[in-house]
Design goal:
CATH architecture: Sandwich
Order of helices and strands: HHHEEEEEEHEEHH
Largest sheet: 4 strands, antiparallel
Distance between the termini: 36 Å
CATH class: Mainly Beta
Low-confidence stretches: none
CATH topology: Jelly Rolls
Number of domains: 1
Number of helices: 6
Strand content: 15-25%
Number of strands: 8
CATH superfamily: Jelly Rolls
Helix content: 25-40%
Protein name: Cyclic nucleotide-binding domain-containing protein
Length: about 170
Amino acid sequence: LRAAGPCCLAEITSEALSRALADPEFASVQLYLERLRRERREQANLGLPMCALPLGIDRGGVCVRMLGLLAYRLVILPGKIWDPLPDDDPDGPHFGILARGRLRVQLSKSGWWVMRLHVGAFVPEGLLAQNQAVLCAEVLTEAYRVRQADYLAAVSASTPEPRAWSGH
């Protein structure tokens, strides 16, 4: 990591964080973190978001489970907008996967919709943002946002070395 400008770095140990979260003042944070932990475990066990793609992916694979733990789950109510992130977002490029529901791709300025996305759709967020498009939920929708860096790390961690392929 390299700082873009002057900054301070503070190390927070897991013990210090646990002590701080034990304070009753942070009960809502504890509840949120517990819910997040449960959701991410469930995502990993179900193979989401990768198993939502129509590719016949095995939900038990290391890459699939890693991405299940890292992907952001988005629940989008009917009529609400999902603003895609640009590729130059501080968190890096992202892509989405539509797991349930239906989305309309709309041009932001005119409001015209250009296409409909169904379950299993791959959502290229940077491309949509670059073209000033948004996604509008037509029905209750569940989608997942995946950081490209997380995807690449998961794939590289679960891909055998070339020697393992040849059996030598």
